[in-house]
């Protein structure tokens, strides 16, 4: 088993507007992308657990043409709100780093 961070070339988070955060998981090789995609480890149940949000609020899209998986979730606090500690949403990918991929 490998950690997702060791397989992905790019693993990042960023704003998708003021109300959502999106995660980009991009792989250099088609084989690695297929390994992760076919493992079915990255799914709504896992993301729901990691980020404590409802499964129906999660969007997961696979882009085989560019070897990427994109996940979008709602922000708990609107970007720029007085209580927001990550205005750009760029520090939200931490829980994804150690996902184990068979």
Largest sheet: 4 strands, antiparallel
Strand ordering within the main sheet = 2-3-5-4
Strand content: 25-35%
Question: How would the global form be characterised?
Answer: globular
Give the structural class: alpha+beta
The number of distinct structural domains comes to 1
Judging by the overall fold, what is the CATH architecture? 2-Layer Sandwich
* SSE succession: EHEEHHEEE
What does this molecule look like?
The chain is α+β, with helices and mostly antiparallel strands. It has one domain (2-75): 2-Layer Sandwich (Alpha-Beta Plaits). The protein is 22% helix and 28% strand. It contains three helices and six strands. It has helices at residues 4-7, 30-39, 44-51, and strands spanning 2-3, 10-15, 20-26, 59-63, 68-74, 100-101. The strands form two sheets. It has a four-stranded antiparallel β-sheet with strand order 2-3-5-4, with no helix packed on it. The termini are close together. The model has no long low-confidence stretch (mean pLDDT 97).
């Amino acid at each position: 088993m490998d950690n997702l961070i060791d397989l992905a070339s790019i693993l990042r988070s960023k704003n998708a507007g003021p109300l959502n955060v999106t995660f980009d998981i991009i792989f250099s090789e088609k084989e690695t992308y297929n390994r992760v995609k076919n493992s079915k480890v990255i799914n709504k149940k896992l993301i729901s657990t990691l980020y404590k949000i409802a499964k129906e609020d999660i969007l997961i899209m696979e882009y085989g043409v560019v070897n990427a998986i994109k996940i979008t979730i709602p922000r708990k606090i609107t970007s720029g709100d007085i209580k927001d500690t990550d205005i750009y949403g760029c520090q939200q990918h931490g829980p994804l780093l150690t996902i184990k991929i068979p």
